[in-house]
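Working notes for the structural subgroup meeting. M.R. asked for a predicted model of this chain before we commit to crystallization trials. I am recording the input and output together here so anyone reviewing the notebook later can reproduce the run.

Input as submitted:
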Amino acid sequence: MYHPFTIADTLKAAWIIFKRNFITIIVYSVVAFFVLLILGMILAVLFTADNFFVELIVWAITLFVQSYTTLGLYKLIFTLIDSEFYEFKITQILPKFTMTISFAVVQLLFATLLESYKFILDHILPEGVIMDIAILLGSFGVLYIVLRGMYSPSFIVDDASGPIESIRQSFQLTKGYFMSTLATLGIIILLIAVPAVLSKYILWAPLFIIFSYPFVNIFLMEAYRKLVYSHQDVDDLDTETV
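Returned structure, recorded in token form:
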């Protein structure tokens, strides 16, 4: 039967998928981590000149590889969700070039928005009450945009959407679910940001992130799928099968 979107059901479904595919997901996450680590070391050796264009090349390569590995994790999660009862091929989790570019563009758009906001605060607005009001309104504005656009990567992977289209689709998907989306973001921050801060004081805290990072992505993909079902008013197949 149809189930309305709830955080509790989403967490339950994500946990079941995480337990069932624990080894596969952790292996991919560790491999992706070392790929990025080795890439960073290679780029540091090959590109040592203090030059703007060299730094731009390094940044572009890093952004592309980070986008590729992140989308690879998303495709793996969607494949594990959709291929619960049959084998899947490794080619199914390889992102297309266009998907990687779309995801990189989305990241650039959000980064540009944030940097523009910071530039206005640092160089245009005067100190005082106006600055305080701008910080308050801007913080709420950035949070709102992040909340409404947080499912754009899911549409890029699941629907092969372009960057602008994926953002528009994410805004449509979260319409009427602001508090649920806020709760989703809160759980993600709790499981990722808090351990990252604690890692400065507790030695084993980074180990927790190795497990929490893939889990929160599963949780995010499950939330996306359940919101899609909710908007379509169809059976929540994931909940039914698990």
